[in-house]
Amino acid sequence: EVVEVPKVLVVDDFSGTTIDAAKWVRDDISFDTGTLTAESGVVVANGVVKFSVTAEVSLWPGIALFTSRTFDASASTPVTFEIDRSLVEFVLTTGTGAEQRTGIWVKEPTGNFVFLNDYIAHDGRNYGWRYNKRTGQDNDNPTNEGLNIPAFDGGNFDNRGQHRLKMV
């Protein structure tokens, strides 16, 4: 049973040309051990945030925007995060072996997290929608290919196109 009336905590339409530091904090988070090139970055244009990441050192460098505020959730007061992903584009820099992920991170101050992500490989492998997690459990998978979500397999979801991502 939800006992609190739902309320909007953060909303942004990215209508400007910069990231609103009162709402968002950039994190050059590495999913594994990678580092970014100096040319990697985040830009805002026409209501769209574009992340451009090139690996200087593998594996899995990245850039994330986290909310500047933190939120506590419980079974009776859940927190929901939604974002529209408009497109995944890529430039192959190493033949056809390039891989990338886009998604939503939910992180705790202790370092625990869940990462819902669309894992794309450009050499014919189809990873699709997956999740990685670090929760202190035996089945944690914080840096590997993640666990597949079979309900999202297929062309309607694995198409690099527009999708609304939602985590509760």
* Averaged pLDDT: 86
Total of helices:
0
Which regions are unreliable across 5 or more consecutive residues at pLDDT < 50?
none
Main β-sheet, spatial strand arrangement: 8-9-10-11
Q: Helical amount among residues, as a percent range?
A: under 10%
Label the structural class.
Answer: mainly beta
Overall geometric form: globular
* H-E string: EEEEEEEEEEEE
Biggest sheet record = 4 strands, antiparallel
Round the Cα radius of gyration to an integer and report it: 17 Å
Content of β-strand = 35-45%
Number of strands: 12
Intertermini distance = 15 Å
Could you write a compact summary of the structure shown?
With 168 residues, the chain is mainly β.
What does this structure look like?
The protein is mainly β and 168 residues long. It is 0% helix and 37% strand. The protein is built from no helices and 12 strands. Strand 3 (41-45) and strand 4 form a beta hairpin. It is globular. The mean pLDDT is 86.
Topology:
Elements: E1 24-27, E2 35-36, E3 41-45, E4 48-52, E5 55-57, E6 64-67, E7 81-85, E8 99-107, E9 113-121, E10 126-134, E11 147-148, E12 163-167
Antiparallel strand pairs: 1-6, 2-5, 3-4, 7-12, 8-9, 9-10, 10-11
Task: Fill in the keyword field for this structure.
12 strands, two-stranded antiparallel ribbon, 168 residues, globular
